[in-house]
Fold these 2 entries.
Entry 1:
Amino acid sequence: MAQQFWTDDVSALLRVREGFDLREIDPDARPGTEARKHEGERELVRATPELRVLQEKLFAQSRLGDQRRLLVVLQAMDAAGKGGIVNHVFAQTEPYGLALTAFKAPTEEERSHDFLWRVEPRVPGPGIIGVFDRSHYEDVLVQKVRGYAPPEEIERRYGAIVDFERRITAEGVRVVKIMLHISPEEQAERLLSRLDDPEKYWKYNPGDVDERLLWPAYMEAFQTAIDRTDSPEAPWYVVPANAKWYARVAVQRIVIDELAKLSPHWPEPDFDVAAERQRVVDSQDLRWP
Amino acid sequence: MAQQFWTDDVSALLRVREGFDLREIDPDARPGTEARKHEGERELVRATPELRVLQEKLFAQSRLGDQRRLLVVLQAMDAAGKGGIVNHVFAQTEPYGLALTAFKAPTEEERSHDFLWRVEPRVPGPGIIGVFDRSHYEDVLVQKVRGYAPPEEIERRYGAIVDFERRITAEGVRVVKIMLHISPEEQAERLLSRLDDPEKYWKYNPGDVDERLLWPAYMEAFQTAIDRTDSPEAPWYVVPANAKWYARVAVQRIVIDELAKLSPHWPEPDFDVAAERQRVVDSQDLRWP
């Protein structure tokens, strides 16, 4: 049972609150559980069917017109484990009900439009869990830290993001934003491990070190972005992520809790079940070949 | 070992050959193996890492400019098990390297364009395995059987499909087309099972019985579509699918064999590994908070 693993309401513990200060979050912490790694891995597997059923209900009810859906935004420094979250949490759900978008540095065409232009078409449709690996928040993180956009434009974007998220919320999208929080020491270890293994070289990008050197500026940009865009309708969660197993099981629980709030349910049939049974039974002897 | 499960080259056995006659394919057959269900389920799990590594290499090499990718087209009568194939074969791979598209009845906008208009943007990008659950083949199957398009337009489409697949092949897309072949009796059982379970009602569509009644016409349309569009560059496979476990493990093997032909490999790094290690090591003490 979940109660055995979680000793407290992890969603509430990781939810950003009034007066939130990123500096107080310990990337090594494991709020809500006293369990160890192997128990965490077991809990992840145990709760997967719980997540799948909620997702399948969400997907099923959309077929009869329900507009609700979930958008999970993942933001983090490089090597913080976004890919692992996608693989171990989201990829365990029904692929038809999942829409994953990995946002890269904007193309020339994308740069010629407003920063939300490329995001709009990736908002999940009814019944779908959308996952953004990076997102419109890059436009107030790297763009701010690197000075790719002037301060007044960054300022404008906070408001534009709030407006955008409010609008899609009204359309039926539950927006959930998650920062995976690692320490610079942990990042160094993970980058070095990519450089230790020829099968992982392709995951390494020299530019990651350039960003790494700007760590304090990034943390300040995260703090500001969270302060300016957190709301009850589109909440931020900050998940300590030095322990990969903890981050995965915590994100899984947050997603389950968020989905459960949508109370998805198996839709009633919009046809006569008995009559349809008879139609199938009657349609035998189709004589082929 | 794969040899223990497969006693013959299943890809070669299921590959459509000169003089192919759909009427001679037994949906209950299990070419290439004498194993039973539990062994098939074990083989599926055993071979999954083999598939994942091939896919990850394909994805990795695309990062350095390689254009190759795979497009798997799944076509079948309703309830033939496309969804199970997606869940048990493709969803076991890396989600970043997978692009699933489920084509529905065309929207009004889609109908106002050529039938390939909606397909073009769904062709997978370099390094990606694209899966089409239904496809442009619906435009020579349901559209033909139902008479939604006149015969001369259907005739034109066979050629247009061949041209389209030849063009994307030249761009680096390996096109593989798979028909899951069930019997009408097996379909009836599966439709009835959906009507037995309130949690599956949403998967049932009364229209499926309308199509079912046209079984012989559909089989003829499949035969013609395969005859007209099979080629060494864009081959058809017909997979007996009355046994779900067989269809899954056979499709998995076909996909592995097709990926292996692309010989994907871990790319060489385009940076100096030792110098990058030093950069990471030197970037300590980032003093935050």
Entry 2:
Amino acid sequence: MTGDTTDPQGTAALRPSSRVTLDDVARHAGVSSATASRALGDHPHVAEATRRRVREAAALLDYVASPEATRLAGGPTGRVAVLVPHPSRWFFGELIEGLEAELRAAELDLVLFRVGGPEERHAFFARLPARRGVDAVVVLAFAVDEVEHARLASLGVVVVAAGGRVASYPSVGIDDHRAGRQAVDHLLHLGHRRIGMLAGGDEQRLSPDPDGRASAWRAALRDAATEPDDDLVVTVPWDGEGGAEGMSRLLGLRAPPTAVFAHCDEMALGAMRTLRRAGLRVPEDISVIGIDDHPLAALTDLTTVAQPVREQGRRAGAMVLDTLRGGPPPRVPPAEMLPTRLVLRGTTSPPGVPR
Amino acid sequence: MTGDTTDPQGTAALRPSSRVTLDDVARHAGVSSATASRALGDHPHVAEATRRRVREAAALLDYVASPEATRLAGGPTGRVAVLVPHPSRWFFGELIEGLEAELRAAELDLVLFRVGGPEERHAFFARLPARRGVDAVVVLAFAVDEVEHARLASLGVVVVAAGGRVASYPSVGIDDHRAGRQAVDHLLHLGHRRIGMLAGGDEQRLSPDPDGRASAWRAALRDAATEPDDDLVVTVPWDGEGGAEGMSRLLGLRAPPTAVFAHCDEMALGAMRTLRRAGLRVPEDISVIGIDDHPLAALTDLTTVAQPVREQGRRAGAMVLDTLRGGPPPRVPPAEMLPTRLVLRGTTSPPGVPR
């Protein structure tokens, strides 16, 4: 079956599985090693019958793939680094899910680096562990300063950003300004004019476009012939406790808002806890809207603007693959923006009668 | 300063940074390469002054570490694979955070493999991409069947489980039975006897100890001289929608429970949405308790049993390092259990007056 004079008795199958090579599989299947590599690597240009024959040979011989044999994308290491501020947060986890699925299909490995706090980021960029053999780096939703930008450039690898625009890297994200407009315009349509905003703070530089959502609030109010009141804006961390604290401050105003626009759902949920504790009803007393469509938004009936996060991760992975496969670099790095949409649930309504 | 006759003019510093080697750094610092390696790798047995001198030399020469030079733990690859069912879920993200921190400190890289649905798991184990050069594999909270167990064994690498006991691997998790007792005993102490349970289903084999929390419900009721009523048990997926669906079924009973024990907080939050929509108040009409102390528990005032998830990830990483460093294998693989504790918030109270 192999027609191979170097192994006439087909003893390749008798070697311990750890010794079976791609060449053994190719011989057994009666194809070249290059063809066997493409067949196992899900390369598109392989006849279905050939692919099947090679896979059967691989299974029969208990062949275990090694990166050099089956990796589809170019690059000498078969690894892609992903730099993540907070792996435990839904947003980053979803980006990772999409990215991993895309890269896994091309048999690339994803190496995860957490760059959460300022010291970890500093240590990371100073010591460049990502240098240890990766073909590409994906930055998840944190701004990169000049020093870090230079460090990444010194790696000589492909860099792609997901979850927002970062420096001048090819990126995929959403139109933050548009998402903000969808949220605030909804409140304006309901009749609200005194609209508070819980703005995500920038200490961790988690917001590549810190002004997009905030400028949307301002522009939407002006388009509704309403002067934006900066007393109605509080800047807090991008999480539940930040939202809770921010809502508390807004309630302390002489004239509190009748509706609140939170830059993300977790902040909105924190705001709702503050309102609950203050004995205020949502939406009867105050309307609340967020951005994301976090899984907890559905569980809490939170009205929000949905963004496709996993898809951003996938698109980032696809950009990495395109570049590794040697596509011509675009003259202007692409900044893909995926669409967002308003999701009406139960936390917004027209302004109620003042108590 | 270098005293090195092979590079008397110190021209090492003039080479492009990508060419600077560990030997260059060692020479510049006036130490052996072995010492330089230990100094850069945070090895404990290096004098502080030496460590500083070597690091200054590395910074001056813009030396970029490579795995072979600075990796502290043994193993030829410097990489550890982590198998994750759902990276976007808080629980798995927290395990990853703890694991990554521990491994990063030892300069090991974490390679992430998502093994979410049955087909991905099957494909993963069938093709063993993890074979591509890792020294250890960490399994996050999913049961491994015999075929998969054999596959992992064929890798010849260290295997550790985090988030629960898995097969016979060294593991770190919590005492699920104890956590369940803490939850149900709390409800019994408040006076509840008709206690429903939202049990996490096992389709994705996400629960290595599917019976621990359920058996706790049964045992706690018996200890309170109450016969467990299986009509009060519904098995649903481990998420918010599962909890919502399960609560709906419990409300359909002729005699609904006065309190509900959900196997995890997300299920509890889903149950609370169902109750909210049914016009029922928590805790006045029905008490609800979960397990985890998920970040959303604090935002929704959910009473729960807290488990230290990030710490489980860290301990798993420490177990990996211990084994790679050549510690003698224990006769019985360790099954570490980290403590859990009741966190009282606002969703439980004594049974109310029946409507």
